[in-house]
Write a structure and sequence with these properties.
Elements: E1 27-33, E2 37-44, E3 47-55, H1 62-77, E4 86-93, E5 96-98, E6 103-107, E7 112-115, H2 117-125, E8 129-133, H3 134-145, E9 154-159, E10 163-169, E11 172-174, H4 208-219, H5 229-237, H6 241-265, E12 269-273, H7 281-293, E13 302-305, H8 312-327, E14 350-352, E15 355-357
Parallel strand pairs: 1-4, 4-8, 9-12, 12-13
Antiparallel strand pairs: 1-2, 2-3, 5-6, 6-7, 9-10, 10-11, 14-15
Helix pairs in contact: 1-2, 3-8, 4-5, 4-6, 5-6, 6-7
């Protein structure tokens, strides 16, 4: 479904397809696969019917983690209400992902290399499988259901454990066989080592996890005391000079990354998601300033905080499932309804050319 026809606010009455809004309509099984947990959901036209979270079992090896994915699908299917047809499965997975061929090229946290996930999942389930990168799935959800609705050209930048972007150009996702949007890696030759093999990558100090690691490295604080960027920000706001320097350095690099996207693609809108966006204006105001500082002749983009929060991946996986079912000839909804935005009202301010507006 292109952005040109995306409705401003999807609901069970507008998603269309067979059984839209009906208690006997089709459903999809949606999985957002992470390095630690698998978030799974059963979704119909009216939204999420049920959810479950199970361990990924990544520490047991690639065979065990993929078996955990199949087990999560089976567990959700066992809970499908009587009379409901499972039309497809949607999978959102981390790593370098080639959506066109259904292959995970490399997922370091899962130790998956050249794994034909879509083909294996289709064989195991007997269902059409929609398949995509976790951040691009989140971007797809924000584009069709959330903060990016109606924006034909924009990027969704997710800042959490890592940093990545999903790019929408002329109303279509741009993936380039999985390589587009990997903005958290490269661009430096010095600094802390990165799992990608580089040094000083943005993910090592500008991601939510990277900020926490950077602060612990500089101060000797424990992971129990400073598990994430939230604690770094709290200490910065309490007057901790090291925490403030870590936060400012990370946000400045994020601003540079956003500016690089804008300089290359002239994007008018950037949706900011991932765990770090929960900081609200403490992130958005300095990020806006940083973006401006790296742009000269280009128009400053509008920064929009994501609306779907941590549920973006599951919603995106469900959209991939609906698309796969339709491609297989099923008459199903184009998309599903969502509940109220997951972010707090204070974090939903828009950053415009005039700064943050309430």
């Amino acid at each position: 479904m292109s952005a040109r026809t995306t409705p401003p606010a999807p609901s069970a009455e507008t998603v269309g397809g067979q059984g839209a809004g009906r208690p006997d309509g089709p459903v999809v099984v949606a999985l957002d696969v992470g390095g630690t947990d698998i978030k799974a959901a059963l979704v119909d036209a009216g939204g999420v019917l049920l959810e479950q979270v199970t361990p990924t079992r990544a520490q047991e090896g690639p065979e065990a983690s993929f078996a955990a994915v199949l087990a999560a699908i089976a567990a959700v299917r066992e809970r499908v209400p009587a009379g409901r047809e499972v039309a497809a499965v949607g999978l959102a997975v981390p790593g370098t992902v080639d959506e066109e061929h259904g292959v995970v090229v490399n997922a370091e946290n899962l130790d998956w290399v050249d794994l034909p996930v879509r083909a294996h999942a289709e064989e195991a389930t007997g269902l059409p499988v929609g398949f995509g990168h976790d951040v691009r799935a989140g971007g797809l959800a924000e584009w069709r259901l959330g903060a990016g609705r109606g924006a034909h050209n924009h990027a969704y930048v997710s800042v959490g454990t890592g940093i990545a972007a999903a790019v929408i150009l002329r109303g279509e996702p741009y993936a380039a066989h999985g390589w587009a949007g990997e903005i958290g890696h490269g661009g430096a030759r010095e600094g802390e080592p990165c799992p990608c093999g580089g040094r000083g990558c943005a993910e090592t100090f500008a991601s939510a996890a990277g900020m926490a690691r950077d602060y612990r490295r500089l101060t000797g604080a424990s992971a129990d005391d400073v598990p994430g960027a939230r604690e770094v920000l709290a200490r910065a706001e309490a007057g901790d000079d090291v925490a403030r320097a870590v936060w400012e350095r990370g946000v400045d690099r994020l601003g540079e990354l956003v500016a690089e996207l804008v300089r290359s693609l002239a994007l008018p809108v950037v949706v900011v998601g991932g765990g770090l966006v929960r900081a609200g204006d403490a992130l958005l105001r300095p990020l806006d300033a940083a973006v401006r500082s790296y742009l000269t002749i280009h128009p400053v983009p509008r920064l929009v905080p994501a609306e779907l929060g941590s549920a973006a991946g599951v919603h995106g996986a469900a959209l991939l499932g609906w698309d796969a079912a339709r491609a297989a000839g099923h008459d199903v909804p184009r998309q599903h309804a969502v509940s109220a935005p997951a972010v707090a009202p204070a974090a939903r301010a828009l950053v415009t050319a005039d700064g943050v507006t309430p």
